[in-house]
Amino acid sequence: METSDQGSRVLYTASADAVGGRHGSARSGSGRLEVELSRPTNPRGTGTNPEELSAAGYAACFLSAMAVAAGQLALPTGPTSVTGEVDLVQELDGRYGLRARLAVRAPEADPVDLRRVVDLADQLCPYSRAVRDNVDVEVTLVGADAGAGA
Length: 150
Fold this sequence. Notes:
OsmC/Ohr_fam, 2 domains, N-terminal domain of TfIIb, KH_dom-like_a/b, OHR, Ohr family peroxiredoxin, three-stranded antiparallel β-sheet
């Protein structure tokens, strides 16, 4: 394992090559991911786009962080899922940006305990840490007893 100048250890490095931008394709260095890309506004596009890939990655990472958080807090959540949504937005000044939403579903979890797990997961999740103070992220709890989100 490689150690950086900041003292952190690199646990894993993912790589991917993109060709043609939003009209091209991307392939991971491992070869396990190979996708055709198309613009989100292209109704005839057959590929995915960076926002869909980001939504999937953020949702999966957050769900894993929730499992770690639930273990650290010793709080059961039961079956849990996270839906990620990522918006591509254009600011008033013309620059592009992102907004994100995570919908957490854990119908068997106590709502107060679930909120504690979600709050800790938000501190642990590398995606949450990477976008904090740069991307607006809304995390909601969905379910009969989940109550309002944060």
